[in-house]
Amino acid sequence: EAIRWFCLAVIYAQALLSMYCIACIQRCDPGAIERTAETCLPQPAEMAAWLATPVADRGMLPEKNIIDGSKSFCVRCWLWRDPVGKESTAAMAGVDRFHHCSKCQRCVEHYHHHCTYFGRCKTGTGWRNGNLRYFRILIGLSFIHPSTGLSVLTAGLLQSESWPYWTGVFLVGSVACYIVGALLLSLVACYMRPDAMAALLRKALSKETSGNDAPVSMSAIWYGKVSSQ
């Protein structure tokens, strides 16, 4: 009886943790930069000249953002993205810390990817800020949940008379589920990082990889560590 309640507690605890992470992903600030007097002013000379031009003669907005030292002006959001006064990291310093999401149509800080399933940008650095940390926990739970279910089922089957047969069936099924899950996760990683995957394929097809190059893992594609250049 004690084992039964323990198994139920573990299952419900993991379910509550998953629900909490989903709620945090939806409600946590993704690092979007709001339009304020401080972020929109002063306007760059190029943009001020564009506004001063008659509407019939304006043409399209400039395609490239305006870079001014460590800050940049997004011509689509019409605001300055300035890292001054904010926590800096070696991996994402200066203008590289900001990205204009083409799905959300807004600028965010410490951009990782836009999740189509949650409809939100995933942003953050490590486990300190943003909603990316909760997304990573969900990814980890996607592997822990099947393990928990398998353990509970195995514990129940051991009390059955035909436990050898059913235990073997569940073990084989669990291995198959893990393999399919890994393949699906790889496909999701390729979908979210198409630029990195394209770079990896070009590198493999061109056979330019030397013997000193380290192999590129799927985790490198997932976290965007493969250059698209």
What is the distance, rounded to the nearest whole angstrom, between the alpha carbons of the first and last residues?
60 Å
Alpha-beta content class: mainly alpha
Major sheet details: 3 strands, antiparallel
Element order, helices and strands? HHHHEEEEEEEHHHH
Strand order of the largest sheet: 1-2-3
- Helical residue percent? 40-55%
Structure annotation, total helices: 8
Shape: elongated
The count of DSSP E runs of length 2 or more, i.e. the number of strands, is 7
Low-pLDDT residue intervals, each spanning 5 or more residues = 85-95, 208-212, 214-229
Number of domains: 2
What share of the residues does DSSP label as strand, in percent?
A: 5-15%
- Over the alpha carbons, how many angstroms does the gyration radius reach? 24 Å
Mean pLDDT: 77
